[in-house]
Amino acid sequence: MRNFGFGCMRLPMNGDEVDYKEFSQMVDTFLEEGFHYFDTAHGYLDGKSETALRECLTKRYPRERYLLTNKLTTNFFNKEEEIRPFFESQLKACGVDYFDYYLMHAQNAEVYKKYKNCRAYEAAQELKAEGRVRHVGISFHDKAEVLDMILTEHPEIEAVQIQFNYVDYEDAGIQSRLCYEVCRKHNKPVIVMEPVKGGNLVNLPEEAKRSWMLWREAAMPATQFALQPASRV
Fold it and tell me: In the predicted model, what is the mean pLDDT of residues 44-56?
C-alpha cells in the first residue's frame, strides 16, 4: 500500500450536496491505484463528508480495503458524557463499526485545556480498548512547544497530523519544521495535512510566475531542439 491519503474536507459538489457519482469515481480510482487512507471529520461539509463516505466508500467496499480516520472535534461536546454518544453517531454516519484512527481534532493550547477537563484523551483510550478505535492520535495547529507539552503528557498518542509544506516549513506561526522535529523527538509517526496548502500552492506569486516564464522562454529553444527527430546518416 502507498503512503498517500484522501482528505474529505473538500469534495465535488452538486449545489449544496456532495456529487456522489463523481465522488464514487474518485474513490474507485484512488483504490485502484493502490491507495487506501481516507480522512474525515463531522464538521466537514456540515456532516455531509461522513455520509458521502458511507454512500461512496464503506457501502461499496469491504472493510479491509481501506483505512478510515475520523476526529473528535471541540464544537460537538462540552463534557465527558457527550463524547461517546457523539462518537457513536460518527460510526453510524460513516457506516462502519470502528475507525482505524481517531484524532483529537485541531489541538492547540486552548483547545487542549478543554480536552483535558473533559477527559477526552482517556475516553478515546477507552474506545480503543473496546476495539471501536484502532489507533488514537491528534491533529495539531499551534507552536512546537505546545506539541511537545501534549506529547510529553500523553505518550500513548500513536500518530500526529501536522500541517506540512514548503511554504509553512519555516512559518513563524505554523512552524512545520519545528513541529516535525518534535514528532521525531517523541518517535511519533506523522500524518501530513495541507501538503499543497488547500490547493493554494498551485497559485504562484507574481514574482515566481515571472521567474518561471523567463526560465521557460530561455529553455524553450533547447527543449524544441531536443525533441526533434535524430538525423540519419
Answer: 98
The per-residue pLDDT for 228 is: 41
The answer to whether the Cα torsion of 50, 52, 58, 59 is positive or negative is: positive
Q: Which comes out higher in pLDDT, residue 215 or 5?
A: 5
- The grid cell for 163 is 500541517
CA–CA distances in Å: residue 110 to residues 137, 156, 171:
18, 21, 21
In angstroms, the CA 60 to CA 38 distance is 14
Cα first-last separation, the chain: 49
